[in-house]
Amino acid sequence: MLALVNPFTDAFPGAPENLANLLWVIVALPLAGAFLCGVLGKFMGRANTNFLACFTVFASFILSCLTLWAVGAQSTQFISPASGVPVRWALWLDLGRWFSAGDFSAHYGFLVDRLTAAMLMVITGIGFLIHLYSTEYMEHDDGYWRYFAYLNLFVAMMLTLVMADNLVLLFVGWEGVGLCSYLLIGFWYRDTEKAWAGRKAFITNRIGDFGFLIGMFLLVLLVGATEQMGRETALGRSNFSDIGRARAWVTAVHDQGPLNLEVLREWALRMPAETAKDRPGMTLGTTITTEGPLKGKTFGQVLTAALLLLLLGAAGKSAQIPLYVWLPDAMAGPTPVSALIHAATMVTAGVYLFCRLSFLLVLSPTAMAWVAMIGALTAIWAALIAFAQDDIKKVLAYSTVSQLGFMFMGVGVGVFWAAALHLVTHACFKACLFLGAGSVMHGNADETDIRRLGGLRKEMPWTWATFAIATLAITGIVPLSGFFSKDAILHGAHTTEVAGYPWVGHTVYWMGLFGALCTAFYMTRLYVLTFEGKRAPDARVPHAHESGFRMVFVLVFLAFLSVVGVVWGIPELVPGPGGRKVALMEGYLAPAMNLADRLASIYDTVTHTESSPWLGFAIAWAVALVGGATAWLVFRSWLPARAGKPLPNYIALFWSWARAKFYVDELYDLLIIRPFTVLSKGLYKIVDAGLIDGVAVGGTAGVLRRVGGWLRYTQTGNAQNYATVMAVGLLISIGVVLTWVLR
Amino acid sequence: MTTLTTWIVTLTVFQPLISAAIIALLPQAEKRLVRGWTFLSMFMNFGLTVLLYGLFDPKGPEFQLEQRLQWISDLGISYHVGVDGLAVSLMLLTGFLGPLVVLASWTSIENRVKSFHLALLLIQSAMLGTLASLDVILFYVFFEAMLVPMYLIIGMWGSEKRIQAAMKFFLYTLAGSLVMLVAILAVYFLAQPSGTRSFDYAAFYNSLAPANRELAACLAGKAASCASMSPLAKALGVYGPWMFLAFAVAFAIKVPMFPVHTWLPDAHTEAPVAGSIILAGVMLKMGTFGFWRYAIPLFPVAAQQMRVAFAVLAVVGIVYGAMMCLAQTDVKRLIAYSSVSHLGFCMLGIFALTAEGAAGSAYQMLNHGVSTGALFLLFGFLYERRHTRNIIDFGGVARTMPVFAALFLIITFSSIAVPGTNGFIGEFLVLLGTFKSTKVPMWLAVLATSGVILSAAYMLWIVQRVFFGPVVQVENARLRDVNGRELATSLPFVVMVLVMGVLPGFFLDRLETSTRRYVARAQVGLDVQQRDEDTRVTVLPLSSPTPVAALPAGTSDQR
User: Fold this and answer.
1) Are residues A593 and A705 in the same domain?
2) Which of A477, A691, B86, B346 could form a disulfide with A472 if both were Cys (CB 3.0 to 4.6 A apart)?
């Protein structure tokens, strides 16, 4: 049995069931806040609105802390609807059916396990800090009530996303956060550019959601086919000694719906992978025989397809290749929004999704390889673009894209806990960086061009100090949180073999290392140009002013978190699964990742070789130092010394391409958007107005007019003519009827 | 059976007509009086539909609250009304829109006020009657009766090119329904033995179903069943596809499906707000309803044969309609084309022939009525202020009309099916049903799913152009926000959007029996094992003396 870490007291005071019954309140509070701020905010006044918005999130935070405490205790458990066996270290609340039709149904259900609890901390904790920061940041904006309504709504939606016990409800949060993102990016809608950025974000996300939807449908079909075929083979008797458990699953498929997470977990258990040759019965390699669109495919093929489609969805939300293009533009929104939505929470939804569905992902090595490679490519690609961006927020945006790439790498090589840890630490230091950038803008009349900043170290000491700490954290300098979380991913990649894709682990590792080098370089550049050196001569204001108490407090707090977060990543700290010593986060998340680990080891889809991480850590540290030092030398000494002299050609070329984001936006425009618009307009002119309305409808009308013209000649007014026609007609009719009857 | 349950449907259908008769007596000049009374009667009508909806038992038999009276006994025509789950839901929608339509045209209609409101009431009766009819002739009469007042509403109170648009609307629809009349008569004569002929829906269906079964078995390759086919089944094999097509064309025009959709943008663009709301809200659903109630159950074999073709047309409607939206310069035309796209989802769900697809389709019918109705309503407010429909004439309206912008945005999200709003449930179920469908190929379903991207593209585009950006034109800087009446008209829509998104079970429950029956009836065409009672239409027998024509020779007329 696993020796599981419990960082809290072993028993939760009070019955966990009572807490489970209150789970909906965590979502309902910010939702109510959003409604009140939106409808009454204008009349309540600024102070009341601020208070209400912060209060609801803070109250959610308190409840979240209680759930964190509860799921830390061994006594907390619920009976899984899909198997009838208890699930420990988790809370579950089923509020009843949302909708159902045919065989499908979806519930309002909330599930909090340790993964969710960690996410709850990030969302409500950092969410509250950012609300607090916003009260000062938005103090001169008349749209404050709208802002806080959207922000509260966002928190509610994000909470729905992480607490949902089924994929459909998760999708509510998934699209809901996209919606809030749309509203907040275009918050200053009078600026056409900003409003367009919102639309771009929404539509790019929708492309992802298109994949997400189809992925869900495929999962529904899969579960349905399994159930059908299982029924034929006596409910997959060969897989289950316990027939009652199989029955419970079938009941749950109908009652809770096929997309319920517990149902899917049980499905994953029922589905031995192809590699497990010794297991008889239904496997992922089994051909589907039930009637339907899946007939003739194997379970494994369909599962892989579904996961790749979900990857498209995750790439949309988490800004990965090829759908990352919306995130840098999303910086048009207010800076706290960038910190909360476009750094700490929403964009990590894709990572969360794959951690949540880790038990499915490990069944498909192909999907894992794709996730890892997409992540690795994105990590490098975005980092390269970040080299040459001059907008402080754009650099951070590309940095976020790149860091999310790291998390995808972690997910793809099966070190889910490391990805989740990086998600949490990244949320802290990136929020700190963004809010620091916001503070810089606040004190410099909204200047975002780092070439026109500089020398802020003295003028904004608090902002400087916190920004510096967060920069060190993200570059991966010991002993800050980013180091262990990023290097846990790299170490994981280095020691992992994905079945059938032996090259993936190493490729990802080297790419990740290069990505880390780039990270250190562009972050140091950003830091140096903004805070070091002399103040730029063409700065907007002669002297920057430090931000007020609320903003500084939040910055300090986040910087503090970026430091102490390291505790969760120190390797070999506590006893973990399998008797080996693991990092705190790995131990903590073990119950949530239990099934994935089990499946991965049973079916050998992912093999982790045990090795000491320390050497790898040293290499990674050296890489980060080299990257940082290079940037420091280049931007602190070399470039100022060469002021006025042109750059070498190859650097200038790279620089201009990177600055233009490698022309990807233009490429998409040229290849997809423009042809599609032209096609739409062309179809409208040619098919709709031309062929259908002009030729078909107009033609018919014309023909009728002409025929009518001819027929006019029959209207002679001569009764004899009419009588003749009548008689002939009658004769013909009689003839026809007679032949019909006599036949 | 109490008097209430017997008469409720009739009362609901004819109450607007009776009110119209009373309002016709009011003096022409008393505009406020006319509006007020029309609103009151529409509100009463809404009350009646709510009552009807409440009386309908989701667990009960398929057809409920029936009433059947002698009408033209010699021809086997009776006055037979009653509702199933789909009809009662659509009637609720019709009732819901009624008073809102009156409120919406409170100030925009200033000339011939009385005639306008009479037309509204007539159309209300006709629409409710079409949904409630269980006799095919009665259905046809109501179906045609909708045309005239609508023609007048577009032709008399529309904008510049109204005559042309009204003509196009009228001729298109009439052409379709005349073809349908021929098919109705063909079934009447062909399917039923002389002497027992009846236009009752049950008679129609029950006489065709066995022949359809035989034909399906034959087509499924069972040679033995081909030899023993009844003459009717043989005839169905030959003429069935044509009769199906005759029904299908009539309804496809009404929906409208690609490529017979071009009347819709013109009609919507030229119609006054009320016309657009009624047209989008209820009238288009008569097409989908027709497929569901008549075309497919009566000719399941032919429907199965042409199923993929119709599914392709539906998907073309979704994608092509959305692409047309991107090419528009006129706001109302854009919303009209979005209807083509949305109704494509309804049709796809119907032709997916799965429980999920059918339920989603029915739900989508209700959704579209609410959300597109609301879009036309809201744009009507703007049109009243600016008297232009050109997209480029707007911009920055959110600044001058914030409440209006918020309302429009919420409806937009419903229209693009953001989860939490009603649109999501419908689209999700339709797409899921399509993916589950055995016959509709998966690439088609994938193509249909791309509709979620396209709808966001065009709806957010229009929101962007109308509401966001700087105020460029001076007229937009002086717009006043929605007034109390306008707010009161649009809030019910917003509430419905959220209620139907969050608590869809309430509405889906009432659709369940209809959905199951519909799917079972359509599957008759597939030669699957099923019990006769799963598809059989059971309705109230005619209690009064049987029509002479229905009597076998030599029996007395006592029963």
Assistant:
1) no
2) A477
